[in-house]
Amino acid sequence: AAGAAGLALGGASGALAHSAFAGSGSGSATGAAGSLSSLGATQVAFHGDHQAGITTPLQAKGHVVAFDLAAGAGRTEAAALLRRWSDTARRLMAGETAPTADSGIALDAGPSSLTVTFGFGHSFFERTGLGARRPTALDPLPDFSSDRLDAQRSNGDLWVQIGANDGLVAFHALRALQKDAGDAARVRWQMNGFNRSPGATGTPMTARNLMGQVDGTGNPKPSEPDFDQRIFVPAAGPGPAEHAWMGGGSYAVVRRIRMLLDDWDKQSLAQQEQVIGRTKATGAPLTGGGETTEMALDKIGADGKPVIPSNAHARISAPEQNGGAAMLRRPFSFHDGIGSDGAPDAGLLFICWQADPLRGFVPVQRKLDRGDALSAFIRHESSGLYAVPPGPRSGEYVGQRLLE
Ligand code: HEM
What we know:
Low-confidence stretches: 1-32
Distance between the termini: 38 Å
Shape: globular
Helix content: 10-25%
Order of helices and strands: HEHEEHEHEHEHEHHHEEEHEH
Mean pLDDT: 91
Bound molecules: protoporphyrin IX containing FE
Number of helices: 11
Subcellular location: Cell envelope
Main location: other
EC number: 1.11.1.-
Function: Involved in the recovery of exogenous heme iron. Extracts iron from heme while preserving the protoporphyrin ring intact.
Catalytic activity: heme b + 2 H(+) = protoporphyrin IX + Fe(2+)
């Protein structure tokens, strides 16, 4: 029930009724395994054309982790690691225990919509001798003038995104995958995020971010005819055959964006709404209607100015203002206590998905970087770009078409 209106896909077709609740201990507080709540019982498929965690509805808890291969680890070790990771992810997403030495953290719980998503960073390809098969779409993102990036918390050889509707289930997966890394890879950085829990609102609705805005309205919808083309690499190319392993994959841009919440909270409601160009209460455009009404970008107010200001975030980022550039935004909020500046270290783990970053994130961020109205209240603190291979077929591990 949670998540952006445009992200209802996993709930409908990606989520399976959870029937075999094997190996996760006995007797939950509610009695037999069959009486798990629908939240705990919901299972997302591990196999498929695309990896889970892209069109899956937003989950309440998330961890994103980057790993670097250990010195001396190359293609063989990387392939073995992806095989171990895939086995663990498949089992945990089915509500089973980890293949080795399960920590017990998720005993009693169902899969709770757990998803695990794996990606490869630019540096992975040199480390594994696979430079010739690195897609150009993975070329480093350009520098943006407002970037305040921490290199230690950016990039990385491998990227893992974990999401679940239960905090213990998510942490359980994180620990299992970290242990699987063994001597082959070490954690480069890790971030923790959250969204609203399913069932917290009276009716399912688009999520809010920590500025209080309805966030996700303009996302491409899986029901739209060009959705797959915008979000996923075509199954049969395009491009050189050595990049065919990415067919059905997607590119994830990950940015830790700090929100300057103390400054934000000093703005009046009217000022806050001008920053985005939409109302805070419902997310409707300032030009009227409801959340899903199209923005009337040409509408001029009594003062002779556009009703949706010329620097409003939703105007500047809209696909029709960017030659059709579109992306699927699927973020987590984060809160890491109080920063050294005495202000909340909180914001958005911005994660967006697209078939090609040069037709998604890059042109839009170039325009926002020139100073949209939101820029004064946010700071991009870390950045990553990852090639996320297609979903595994039955018996395959994630990334096998690259690594075998
Ligand atoms: C729209 C918030 C960063 C791209 C929006 C909306 C809000 C919002 C409230 C309007 C509702 C919606 O359509 O979702 C934020 C916040 C950010 C942030 C709080 C940072 C903390 C970014 C970044 C990008 C981006 C970095 C991409 C480079 C978009 C796009 C839309 C949008 C494409 C939809 C425009 C449309 O289709 O009408 N954002 N945003 N946003 N944002 Fe952001």
